[in-house]
Amino acid sequence: MAAMAMERGTAAEALVGQVVLPGDLLLLPAHYDEDAEGERLRLSAGTAPQGRLLCGPGLRRSGAGLLVTKCGLLRHRPGGGGAYWVDSQQKRYVPVKGDHVIGIVTAKAGDVFRLDVGGSEPASLSYLAFEGATKRNRPNVQVGDLIYGQFVVANKDMEPEMVCIDSSGKSSGMGIIGQDGFLFKVSLGLIRKLLAPKCEIIQELSQLYPFELVLGMNGRIWVKAKTVQQTLIIVNILEACEYMTAEQRKQALAKLSGN
Amino acid sequence: MAVEMEVADGQCRLRPFSCELGLLSRPDGSAAFLQGDTSVLAGLYGPAEAKISKELPDRAALEVLLRPKVGLPGVLERSREQLLRQTCEAVLLGVLHPRTAISLVLQVLSDAGSLLSCCLNAACMALLDAGLPLAALFCGVTYALQPDGAILLDPTARQEQEARAVLTFAIASSDRKVLMATTKGSCSVEEMQQCLAAAQRAASTIFQFYRDSVRRRYSKN
C-alpha cells in the first residue's frame, strides 16, 4: 500500500529521516496550497515563498515537487526556504566544489600537477596555488606525495581544479601531507559522519592518545601517531566504525584504554 | 541482511526472494540476488575514467558484462547483456556524469530458471547500492505459459523447459511502465497482454521487497 502512495507523491516532511528510493515523488508544502487554490492566479504578496528551497544531492526538481534519484535517508534542514537532501552510503567520489579532499600526485605536467582524487578524472593543481609560492619559489612536490586541498572548479563538464590556499592566500591547514603516516579508504558516509561537528568517534579516540588526522571528503583518511603500532590501532578502529554500533565501539575502546 | 519474502499473487507465486547489498569490498556497488535457487552476483564500478574510444561526450557509457557459471560468455550472454544494458540506460540519469564509464558485471552463481529476471533485479540493486542517479527503479518478471494455457509466475528451470512460451518483462517503478519485453516460444497476443498485466501486479511486490532490503541496510546506522 505504501508503494502505491509513493507514486502519487508523499509530503516531504513526513519522510524526513526515512529511507527513500529513486522514483519517489516528494511534495512540498507550497505545492499543497497550489492544489487547494487550483488554477486561480495569485497576486497577493502573502503567498510568495519565504526563501528559496535548497535541493541537495539525490534530489531533482520535477514539475510537481522533488524527485528522488538516489537511495538513502531523507534529511531536512529548516531555516530560510529550507533544504532537503538524501544521505546515501556511497563508495565512489564525485568532485564537488568547495570539498576538502586528499589527492595523490600522479604526474607533474609543466605548470600543473595531476592528482588522483578517486573521481572519474584526475584533478589539476597549479604550482602557484600554494602558500607563498611564486614563479621563482616553487613548492617541493614529488610524484606520489599526498596533498590536502580544496576544489575551486568541480562540475560534470570540466576537469576538476584544486588549490591549497584559501581566498586570502593562507594555507589554512592545506598543503603537502608529511612523509610518514598511513592512508586508507572508507565509505563516503563514514567520512561525513566523522566530519560532523562534535563527532563522538573522534572525541573518544582523542582520549586514547595524541595523533594527527586528515579527513578527505573523497573517503580518504590519513593518520599519524607517535608509533606505527599506535597509528595502526587508530586505523583499525576507524575502519571498523563502518560496521560497529556505538556500544560495540565503546567496548572496543574501553578494552584498548585498559591495556 | 537477507530479506525473505514469499507472496501469493492469485494462484501465481513468486519464489522466496533474498538480497544482500554491498557484500563485495572492491566494487563501488554490489548486490547478490536470489530468486528461489537462482542466484546472481552483481558488481558495479563507476562513474570511473573512460577509455577515449568508449567515452561519450554527453552521457556516461554503460557497459554490462554477463558471466555464465561455467565457460566463456557466448552469443546468448551477449544478447542478454544488450537487453540489460538498454534497460539500465532507460532509468539511469547518465547525463549527470558525462565522459565517464560505468561497468556492471553480473556473475551467474546458479541458474534454476527465470535467470534474466534475476539478472535484472540484481542489476537494479547494484545500481541502487552504488548510489548512481536513477529516474526510477526497475524489476524483472518472468512468466511461463504452460501447454494447457495456464500462466506461471517466476518459473523454475524445469517449468521453463516444459513451457510453450517464456516471457520476461522489465517493469519501471514509475507508472509500472514496460522497459523491456522478450519472449521465447509461441504465444497469442491476448496471452502476452495477460502476462504483462500480471507482471505489472507482481512488480509492486518486488518493489516493496526492494524497499525493505534498502531499509534493512540503512537501519544499521
Automatic annotation (TrEMBL), chain A:
It comes from Geospiza parvula. It is found in: Cytoplasm; Nucleus, Nucleolus. Keywords: Acetylation, Cytoplasm, Exosome, Isopeptide bond, Nucleus, RNA-binding, rRNA processing, Ubl conjugation. Component of the RNA exosome core complex (Exo-9), composed of EXOSC1, EXOSC2, EXOSC3, EXOSC4, EXOSC5, EXOSC6, EXOSC7, EXOSC8 and EXOSC9; within the complex interacts with EXOSC5 and EXOSC9. The catalytically inactive RNA exosome core complex (Exo-9) associates with the catalytic subunit EXOSC10/RRP6. Exo-9 may associate with DIS3 to form the nucleolar exosome complex, or DIS3L to form the cytoplasmic exosome complex. Exo-9 is formed by a hexameric base ring consisting of the heterodimers EXOSC4-EXOSC9, EXOSC5-EXOSC8 and EXOSC6-EXOSC7, and a cap ring consisting of EXOSC1, EXOSC2 and EXOSC3. GO terms for biological process: CUT catabolic process; DNA metabolic process; exonucleolytic trimming to generate mature 3'-end of 5.8S rRNA from tricistronic rRNA transcript (SSU-rRNA, 5.8S rRNA, LSU-rRNA); nuclear polyadenylation-dependent rRNA catabolic process; poly(A)-dependent snoRNA 3'-end processing; regulation of gene expression; TRAMP-dependent tRNA surveillance pathway; U4 snRNA 3'-end processing. One of its GO terms (cellular component) is nucleolus. PANTHER family: EXOSOME COMPLEX COMPONENT RRP40, PNAS-3 RELATED. Residues 18-89 form the Exosome complex component RRP40 N-terminal domain. Pfam families: KH_6, RRP40_N_mamm, RRP40_S1. Residues 181-229 form the K Homology domain. This is Exosome complex component RRP40. Belongs to the RRP40 family.
TrEMBL record, chain B:
Its main location: cytoplasm. It comes from the Eukaryota. GO terms for cellular component: cytoplasmic exosome (RNase complex); nuclear exosome (RNase complex); nucleolus. It holds the Pfam family RNase_PH. Keywords: Cytoplasm, DNA-binding, Exosome, Nucleus, Phosphoprotein, rRNA processing. The keyword Hydrolase does not apply. One of its GO terms (biological process) is rRNA catabolic process. GO terms for molecular function: DNA binding; RNA binding. Coiled coil: none annotated. CDD domains: RNase_PH_RRP46. It is found in: Cytoplasm; Nucleus, Nucleolus. Transmembrane segments: none annotated. InterPro entries: ExoRNase_PH_dom1, ExoRNase_PH_dom2, ExoRNase_PH_dom2_sf, PNPase/RNase_PH_dom_sf, Ribosomal_Su5_D2-typ_SF, RNase_PH. Homodimer. Component of the RNA exosome core complex (Exo-9), composed of EXOSC1, EXOSC2, EXOSC3, EXOSC4, EXOSC5, EXOSC6, EXOSC7, EXOSC8 and EXOSC9; within the complex interacts with EXOSC3, EXOSC8, and EXOSC9. The catalytically inactive RNA exosome core complex (Exo-9) associates with the catalytic subunit EXOSC10/RRP6. Exo-9 may associate with DIS3 to form the nucleolar exosome complex, or DIS3L to form the cytoplasmic exosome complex. PANTHER family: EXOSOME COMPLEX COMPONENT, EXOSOME COMPLEX COMPONENT RRP46. Belongs to the RNase PH family. This is Exosome complex component RRP46.
